[in-house]
Amino acid sequence: MKTNTSITVTLTANLRLEQALEQALKQAGVKKPREVTKLTIYGTLTADDFQYIRKKMGKTLLELDLGNASIEGNKIPNLAITGSSLNSLTIPDSVTEIDISTLKFCLTTITVGSQNLFFTSEDGVLFNKAKTELIRYPRERKEGCYIIPDSVTKIGDNAFYLADLCSVFIPDSVTTIGRCAFSSSDLTSITIPDSVTEIGNGAFTDCEELMSIIISNSVRKIGRDTFYGCSGLISITIPNLVTEIGPSAFLNCYRLTSITIPDSVIKIDRFAFKGCNLSSISIPASVTEIESFAFDECINLTTITVHPNNQVYTSIDGVLFDKAKRVLVQYPIGRKEECYVIPDSVTIIGAGTFSNCYRLTSVTIPDSVIEIEFYAFLNCACLPTLYIPNPVAEISEFAFERCPAFVTVHPDNPKYKSENGRVKEK
If I label 90, which of 41, 49, 118, 147 is the partner at 20 to 30 A Cα–Cα? Predict the structure, then answer.
């Protein structure tokens, strides 16, 4: 068992931390800095002193008390180090700024000097002085659930990052949830009240235990990476005011089998539902833009339907097209058919259209097609051959990336030829 060793040092202009600690260790009969579990510092710390703590004590120090110290520049710099054991940090009155990386330690409690004008703490949780922003919940607290004080209007960036919590109560006072606020925490469920109008990018990234969430009806955008990697998520309702589902918003939500896109949504961004377990998806009349790969790697997706009043998109037999049926947008990966004949109205095979369609053994490209965009046939593992007709005038460099098909080009095609089953420019 590790012995608790507490050391106090006083710094002066001529006595920096390394020398002061060396003297204190000698007096205490302690051999090395890494044997110290609690360090209390008086005097003014410099950037070099913090670097010394990080380098020599970062993995073994449990408590760092700076309550009676002052800090050059009034900022606590980055103390974060892989494998850190620090669980208690005392912040002095003079500090006006803290490097966010420092707060990613395995902390259980954060204490702030009572005269600090910028920060305060309550029950070991860090807030701004007015307690309107929750800055950091110590990741190793073992409470299981936490009730955010009703003075809080903002949950700060990374506030609950890696927090060992299964439940958080958000009061009606909160209007903003910051970037990565709950990222990689142990939340199992959460309700976001209607007072919240903004959810930052990556707010719930990698919350693998999160199974259900109720989102504020005031939210207008599901941002980038909001639920990325929430592999346990099985239930979510997108509010009726949401206009955009951001890039990778639900990427790799493996257990998400169904979702309703409300009539308010205008844009579905790239990778929005990549890797979800959806079997079908309905596009409402309001949607005017669906970016490439929005439904990539949805291996059980068999049908995409579009509201008949949609002015931009349509579907034929569950396959997604633009309204004029000139652009083939998305072929559902989970369809059971092994062969597909592209309608002869199509002029463009869109980016990622057949990406990861592992069941397809035959795709017929009609003479109407003039362009094949990037990754159109990415990783079509079972496609043995493919024929490019004469009118095709533009083929992306990566159109057939990781596709084993032996590609043949019409001999009269003015721009392309086939060489050992690969497409080359003439």
Answer: 147
Give residue 306's identity as a one-letter amino acid code: V
Write down the pTM of the prediction. 0.90
* Average of per-residue pLDDT values in the chain: 94
Residue from 75, 95, 74, 78 nearest 86 by CA = 78
Q: How far, in Å, CA of 176 to CA of 133, rounded?
A: 9
Question: Which of 91, 106, 121 is where one domain is finished?
Answer: 106
- Both tokens of residue 216? 């504020």
Please tell me the distance from the alpha carbon of residue 96 to that of residue 92, in angstroms, as a whole number: 9
For 74-88, the pLDDT digits (tens) are 999 887 666 678 899
Let me know: does 394 contact 417? Beta carbons within 8 Å: no
**12: its two tokens:** 């002066």
* Rounded Cα gap, residues 142 and 250, in angstroms: 29
Structure token digits, residue 6: 């507490």
CA neighbor of 307 nearest in space, from 329, 330, 285, 288 = 285
Q: What share of the chain is helix, strand, coil (3-state, %, to 5)?
A: 10, 30, 65
User: Per the domain annotation, does 375 fall within a domain?
Assistant: yes
Cβ–Cβ under 8 Å, residues 170 and 191: yes
Task: Check which CATH number belongs to the domain holding 92 and give it.
Answer: 3.80.10.10
- Residue bearing tokens 């009969």: 29
- The string of DSSP letters for 270-334 reads TTTTTT---SEEEE-TT--EE-TTTTTT-TT--EEEE-TT-SSEEEETTEEEETTS-EEEE--TT
